[in-house]
Amino acid sequence: MNQPLMFHNYTSLQTIGKENFLRGSFFGTYDLDVDFGKGVTRNISYYSVSWEKKLGEDKSWAFHHFLRTSDKYPSLKLALKSDTAGGKFGYGTRGMTKDLTISPDFEVIFTLNLLKGGGANSQFNLLEMRSCWRNDVLRCEGNSRIDVNRYFRMILSPNTTALCSPTNLKACPPYHITRGGSPPIYRNDTANFPYEAYHSYCAPSNAEHLQELYHLCDPYSNPMPQEIIKILPHPVWESYGFPKKQGDGWIGDSRKWKLKAGQLAFTLPFYQDPGTVPIDRSWDSIGVGTEVFMNPDQVVDGLSVTLIS
Fold first, then answer.
1. Number of domains the chain contains
2. What is the pLDDT along the chain (309 residues), one digit of tens a residue?
3. Please, which residues bridge with residue 200 across strands?
4. What DSSP element (H or E) covers 25?
5. Domain that holds residue 32
6. What CATH code is carried by the domain that includes residue 265?
């Protein structure tokens, strides 16, 4: 897949009437032969992100996202992320987050207003978090053989239903931990395990002590082994500030979210080798955004006013 065209309007001070704003944007396309002089027509991939901050009042930044897929590029992703300065990659990086966010002691606060959702084959992540640790719970060192990227995603799209079920246990994590810290509820406990709270789970390909049944994460979508837990709106997440039912916070239901993300991420059943002590889970990337899968000419249009702490 080729790199996209990208045009950048650097952040600048703009005065409208008596009010001062910081504003900037970038936009582009993956269709390299497009003529922007003819406008952005149907069946041309397009993405744009604009941001502004009103000076003298609020410290919030307002971001507006727009994404369109095309026949040539039916699967695209656009997300707003706050990363740490290091990023845990093998090359120099920098980001908006100065310090690692460590579970359970942080919240994520933002306002989200969605205008269009991207069609049936899209997944809008109310929250996506990334960390990296080895299966023996040591910190990642840049070794693509033993390091594991860990992801947690809350899917907001109401058309997305759970793959995890009593008849498809390999799509479920091995167990569920309640907020009260009660003993684990194992996925074969059909009377108590919250199957509809989990969209899917995939295990790291280099894990040596997985419970049968299991599904390994795609080895081709990431340069390192990865583990992904995807959850859905459900009452078990309500006490953490997350949506309790499908449709909460979707199109026409703009909300300010105050997510106890650090507490929730602390309880999620990520894999570690037997006999190892629980790790202090630090997260180097926190974001909100969408993925569209194999669905041309779809539009995702959303506005988020974001504060991440």
1. 1
2. 789 999 999 999 999 998 899 999 999 999 988 877 776 667 889 999 999 998 887 678 889 999 999 889 999 999 888 877 554 555 555 566 767 788 888 999 999 999 888 877 889 999 999 999 999 999 898 898 999 999 999 999 998 999 999 999 999 999 999 987 789 999 999 999 999 999 999 999 999 999 999 999 988 888 899 999 999 999 999 999 999 999 999 999 999 999 999 999 999 999 999 999 888 888 988 999 998 887 777 777 776 665 543
3. 230
4. strand 19-29
5. 5-308
6. 2.60.120
